[in-house]
């Protein structure tokens, strides 16, 4: 993702605008995943509530790979 942003910056686009453009084009949820959200997922996976989770791949990407 950073390479895509950097390419836009090299083309003269403002860094914040480059991120916003990429987000609008590629991210169905319209927002980037936050460090707090990632931490909360890690806490869940380490909790008793996830004791039966096995062999699962959980994407926390706002739907990016689902496109």
Automatic annotation (TrEMBL):
Keyword Oxidoreductase: yes
Keyword Transmembrane appears in the UniProt entry: no
InterPro entries, A to Z: NAD(P)-bd_dom_sf, SDR_fam
Keyword line: Oxidoreductase
SUPFAM superfamilies given in the database record: NAD(P)-binding Rossmann-fold domains
Pfam families on file: adh_short_C2
Class in the EC hierarchy, top level: oxidoreductase
GO MF term (any one): 3-hydroxybutyrate dehydrogenase activity
E.C. number(s) listed in UniProt: 1.1.1.30
Protein name (record): D-beta-hydroxybutyrate dehydrogenase
